Amino acid sequence: MVRKKLLAIAAAVTAVILSATQLSAAGIQLDVKKHVLANGMRILVLENHSAPVFSTVVRFNVGAVDERPGITGTSHLLEHMRFKGSKVIGTTNYDAEVPILAQIDSVAHLMKAEQVRLQSPLNSQDSTLYKQYRQQIADLQAQEKKYIIKDEIWRIYLQNGAAGFNASTGNDGTQYIVSLPSNRLELWAFMESDRLQNLVLREFYSERDVVMEERRMSYENSPRGALGEAAAAATYWSTPYNWPVVGWMSDLQNVQREDVEQYYKEHYSVSNAVAVIVGDVKADEVFALCEKYFGPIAAEPLPRPVVTRDARQRGERRIDVEFDASPMGSILWHTPQIGHPDIPALDVASSILSDGRTSRFFKNIRQTRIGQASAGVDAFNRYPGTFNVDIQPFGDHTLQEVEDSVYAEIERMKTTKVSQWEIDKVINQGDAALVRSLDNNMGLAYRLANSETLTGNWRYFVDYQDALKKVTPDDVMRVCNTYLTRENRTVVSLVKPYAQETAQTPGKAN
């Protein structure tokens, strides 16, 4: 009896999934409706009436790659600032805030000039004046707090049944997410349109300090963070993937509120945004509400695209990062950007190497207790990315042993074709993951937003899975020989500090 009930429940769940996504033998058919406002904002809706909720992703086509030296980390800093409220939300009297914000900006100019002076070796390192300016800003922000309603945007959403209210910033985009009951659709449209057109960068300098502390924890005090930052800086010498999403510390210390406000005006335009709504909504109602709330916002010219590319690498690069931690490393090879026909074969190669207990790295590196290695490829990068392998030795084994084992597996793929069974395994795993994601409103909304923003085609993530199915053993061998070469790779190793290493090795020469 219990088994019959379970089977009935499973059948009902499957029916809901099939109904919501219109799966067919010919492939996945998603009934996504698209509407473009006159100002250029794109709205995507996928109705799923299985539960009285909906999930949304508002994605802006702006990330760390759109920055420049001097304002690195601005995209991520703006993500923080967009939770501070607007001229309407988060304040009891915005008009009273305005003169205080102007005073803060005036003192910040003086503080920046002093900061620049202190960074020059030709000047005294007396920071008394800098400290005075910081205190003045802190005092002014304390005055402003009289008018600030802390976290009001969070409170409004939570009081209306929101879940998963959050945001994230990457190299290629920034997204803001929330799930709400179906009868709160208009609230979402009002809230998101308000903070898009009426954003106030209040508490900017205290939040900038928060981001600097985040940078210290994630990069400067983290061995893996330090390794990743060094790997990007060594691999990309021209492309803006060179710097971390959180930015360089010197830029965070010097960036002004007005710099960030100008960046916001240039990149956070309705014409540079995609809104995706998945769940228990009606497309016509969504489009009407978006016309009402987002439609009146003036369009801005799209930002100029990044045109800088890294030149062809002409030899292996190796760097060491000294850190008092267990050894680990990263190996990176340059690869093309999203949409290139070689990306699917590189993706299949990375999965054959490291996905699951039947992968080659697992059987020949982890099970032999040499260490562990995991591969991946940047398949959804706006600009050329990497095929990368992270490595770590076990016990008394060395980083070099794991690195050599990785190269041995890659060389084997260059000279001997992978089996069709290995490719089929990758395809089956990908199909299963894709189908599972279709039963999650937020996961599906994110995939749609990501595809639409990066390629202009919301179906790209589905088409990409179809492209993986066309990969052959010959394709895998070809791309391994083309891209995974010695002259195209960068190797970054986390090693013990030299002074500590020599102290632990008696008789080692200086």
UniProtKB/TrEMBL annotation:
Residues 254-429 form the Peptidase M16 C-terminal domain. One of its GO terms (biological process) is proteolysis. Keywords: Signal. GO terms for molecular function: metal ion binding; metalloendopeptidase activity. InterPro entries: Metalloenz_LuxS/M16, MPP/UQCRC_Complex, Pept_M16_N, Pept_M16_Zn_BS, Peptidase_M16_C. Residues 1-25 form the signal peptide. PROSITE patterns: INSULINASE. Residues 44-88 form the Peptidase M16 N-terminal domain. Belongs to the peptidase M16 family. This is Insulinase family protein. It comes from candidate division GN15 bacterium.
